[in-house]
């Protein structure tokens, strides 16, 4: 048996046990992990220093060094608090979603259940291992974890503490050894990506390149997004002040974010539309990639207003129509195009967007409803910044990731994305052949029961 | 552009429009399709005769001929009624699943939406094309349909009628031409299975071999099941009469069904457990594939009771442990094994089952709860036959298929399996940078609103 098959099988075995553990015990082990990580802070710091030293020697960029440093500011304490925060969330497992009377003493229940085995691949931020351990155990899933190689010593030491804690309390909590397995080599990852018999979901947390690569190399469902190409449509009936505020926020609040605006679609019937572009350039330092007709009109309007100065001029480039509307700039750049109607905006977005989050700015309700209905993305907003696409802003307590898949979980994903459901039937000896359709004469009742006060 | 890419793009375009069409208009076109198929019954019957003739000439088996014959008994009328039944179902699109106040005048909604483009591959039963057309349009999805080649003339004629109806009423209903595309060649199917940019879900309806082949050859999510290896566990505290009734039903009511029992796990501490096996053989004509210890004990017990006669003897074979517990017999055969506890039963099932449906028979609540919690299958039953795993029995109105995937849709799938969700935010100009975590000072409210009376 290959080592990756063995790892996957171990995880499956642990997952099958974890599924039966109460929320109380799953959370209890998280508090214990919190305590032991805290107690072992010095050995973790020592390991982290080794990683930082190796990184310094290999000449890693300063910004990446900062991400590696687990003891910078209150990062370590925030990480510890994060474990407790997850432990305190409502149990995502065993939630009743449907109860239906099929017949007397024969009831169908739909109940949430863990997905099973997660393979989580992330980059070098060392605190992520604690976060993922908490998410996996809280949701009753076994986790196989692979972090970036720059943090290998920190990961190894933290995994040692986590696993010895799980082992120490296994008798008490029932959470089994094997619930969290750290793997270290790339070979293991590629091996694991073929274990679709045992692994149920891959969660890549990291760069778009990482996600794209993983999606291309596995048959296991992947929860993640490769691209965040978000668009905003300025309707003819937009409020100019809202338009200025929202586009500036969406582009400049965090340009490297996947929920940042990359494309601005402008309806030229909007009075003074050019003020929005001017605002983006002057206040946001945004370089505008303008379609030729937009450029011509923009320059003309600004000249009429005696506003066409060097600050504005230096922020105009020609759009490359063949690539710029399918591109995540991840910088203070924005592609701009005229569209003549909401319908045309919807068509552009459905063709070019990555199905992440798109917004319309308008005071016209009919246009807004057309947009909200027509856009095929995880998030569709009316008069709000695309930057709201975020698990914490949605109130999910924690964020597992943002998904651009169309099935299972879409958009920002909370713990809900790590559970699925099962159907239970509780009967008293009923058989199908007594009922219509399978040879019998009894009819089904099919009466939905009120689940608001029900527990099973 | 390849023909399959063109087909996929057309479907995507149609799907984007269908998404915006009201339930009234989606259902209206289904009634029109019903009417026109009825009016064109004679041309469809003529085409069906051609298929039957070709099948007879090629020496197709009588049972398959029967499936091809669309005008046998009331099959055609039942098919027509099925279209109306789907039209009358509750709209699966636009259902509000969550409404959360993020701040004053800033509300997050989670709303069901069509998946987008379905590729549905089915075998030769001609009535399926009407059923799938109804399901796709009702759920706001564009459908690409490929049926078995034996019914090609019938499919072609029905597709002609369906598409001319859609075209005739396009102005009236908005449901676009291209919503339903019939493809005829295998080359097109393999081409389409690579169009993951445009196609969102593949729904194979047919043999396990078909499903397995499709799952192996596409990156698009597949809704379906390749195997139905269902087990029943007879606990030490089972009621013997319930056990006899349930196992007989589960094995013999429809042995070719995916929800039929294939494995029986027996706790030898159950008093008179052998009566259940004897009942299966005598009343159900079931051949028992017995593990050696089961066989020895079974023969001994029956001999003690002077019941070991030829009828019983002829229904005993040795189990092949290396294959029979991972096998869908699809016949009056059943693998039988002793397990010593509920825990051991759960472990056997989680290892061998296809995650379809498994049941425990017991009067012991603690054992039942352990089983219900521990089994990792779409359906887990207590004192009921596995044959209840069926969309109609669950009260779904219609059945799209049965899924053994662990994400998106599990078990019997109704129209719900053809929709996903989107998040809408309706605001009044809010930007993220005003809020905590993105540079501002405002806190989110995160108050869930009562959606029971709400429409948006």
Walk me through this protein's architecture.
Chains A, B: It comes from Torulaspora globosa. Chains A, B: Residues 5-270 form the Aldehyde dehydrogenase domain. Chains A, B: Pathway: Amino-acid biosynthesis; L-proline biosynthesis; L-glutamate 5-semialdehyde from L-glutamate: step 2/2. Chains A, B: Catalyzes the NADPH dependent reduction of L-gamma-glutamyl 5-phosphate into L-glutamate 5-semialdehyde and phosphate. The product spontaneously undergoes cyclization to form 1-pyrroline-5-carboxylate. Chains A, B: Its EC number is 1.2.1.41. By secondary structure, chain A is α/β, with parallel strands linked by helices. Chain A folds into two domains: 3-216, Aldehyde Dehydrogenase, Chain A, domain 1; 230-393, 3-Layer(aba) Sandwich (Aldehyde Dehydrogenase, Chain A, domain 2). Helix content of chain A is 40%, strand content 20%. Chain A has 17 helices and 17 strands. The first copy, chain A, has helices at residues 3-18, 23-39, 41-57, 62-68, 75-87, 128-138, 152-168, 170-173, 186-192, 208-216, 240-252, 274-284, 292-304, 310-313, 342-352, 365-374, 391-394; strands at residues 96-103, 106-114, 117-122, 142-146, 180-183, 201-205, 230-234, 261-266, 287-290, 316-318, 333-338, 357-361, 379-384, 401-403, 411-413, 419-430, 447-448. The first copy, chain A, has a seven-stranded parallel beta sheet, sandwiched between helices. In chain A, α16 (365-374) links the parallel β12 (357-361) and β13. In chain A, α1 (3-18) crosses α9 (186-192), α2 (23-39) packs antiparallel against α6 (128-138) and α3 (41-57) runs antiparallel to α7. Chain A is globular. Chain A starts with a helix and ends in an 8-residue tail after the last strand. At the A-B interface, β2, α11, α15, α16 and β13 of A face β2, α11, α15, α16 and β13 of B. β16 of chain A pairs parallel with β13 of chain B.
């Amino acid at each position: 048996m290959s080592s990756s098959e063995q790892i996957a099988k171990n995880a499956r075995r642990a997952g099958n046990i974890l599924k039966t553990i109460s929320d109380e015990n799953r959370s209890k082990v998280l508090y214990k992990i919190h305590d032991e990580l805290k107690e072992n802070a010095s050995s973790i710091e020592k390991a982290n220093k080794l990683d930082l030293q190796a990184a310094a020697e290999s000449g890693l960029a300063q910004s990446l060094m900062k991400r590696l440093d687990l003891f910078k500011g209150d990062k370590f304490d925030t990480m510890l608090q994060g474990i407790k925060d997850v432990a305190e969330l409502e149990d995502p497992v065993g939630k009743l979603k449907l109860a239906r009377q099929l017949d007397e003493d024969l009831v169908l229940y739909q109940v949430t259940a863990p997905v099973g085995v997660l393979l989580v691949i992330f980059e070098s931020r060392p605190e992520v291992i604690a976060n993922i351990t908490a998410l996996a155990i809280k949701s009753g899933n076994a986790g196989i974890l692979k972090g970036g190689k720059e943090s290998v010593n920190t990961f190894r030491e933290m995994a040692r503490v986590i696993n010895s804690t799980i082992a120490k309390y296994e008798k008490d909590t029932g959470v089994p050894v094997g619930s969290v397995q750290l793997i270290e080599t790339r070979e293991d990852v590629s091996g694991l990506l073929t274990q679709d018999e045992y692994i149920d979901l891959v969660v890549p947390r990291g760069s778009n390149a990482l996600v794209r690569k993983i999606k291309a190399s596995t048959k296991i469902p992947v929860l993640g997004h490769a691209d965040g190409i978000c668009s905003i449509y300025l309707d003819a009936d937009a409020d100019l002040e809202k338009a200025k505020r929202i586009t500036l926020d969406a582009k400049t609040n965090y340009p490297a974010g996947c929920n940042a605006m990359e494309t601005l679609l402008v309806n030229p019937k909007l009075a003074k539309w050019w003020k929005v572009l001017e605002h983006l350039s002057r206040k946001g330092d945004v370089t505008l990639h303008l379609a030729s007709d937009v450029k011509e009109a923009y320059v003309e309007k600004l000249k009429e207003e005696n506003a066409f100065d060097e600050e504005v001029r230096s922020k105009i480039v020609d759009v490359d129509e063949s690539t710029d509307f399918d591109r995540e700039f991840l910088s203070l750049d924005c592609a701009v195009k005229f569209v003549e109607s909401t319908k045309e905006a919807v068509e552009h977005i459905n063709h070019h967007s990555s199905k992440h989050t798109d917004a319309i700015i308008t005071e016209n309700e009919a246009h807004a409803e057309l947009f909200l209905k027509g856009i095929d993305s995880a998030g569709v907003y009316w008069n709000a910044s695309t930057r709201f696409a975020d698990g914490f802003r949605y109130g999910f307590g924690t964020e597992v990731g943002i998904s651009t898949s169309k099935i299972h979980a879409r958009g920002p994903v909370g713990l809900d994305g790590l559970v699925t459901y099962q159907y239970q039937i509780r009967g008293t000896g009923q058989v199908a052949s007594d009922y219509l359709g399978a040879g019998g004469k009894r009819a089904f009742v099919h009466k939905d029961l009120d689940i608001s006060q029900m527990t099973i």
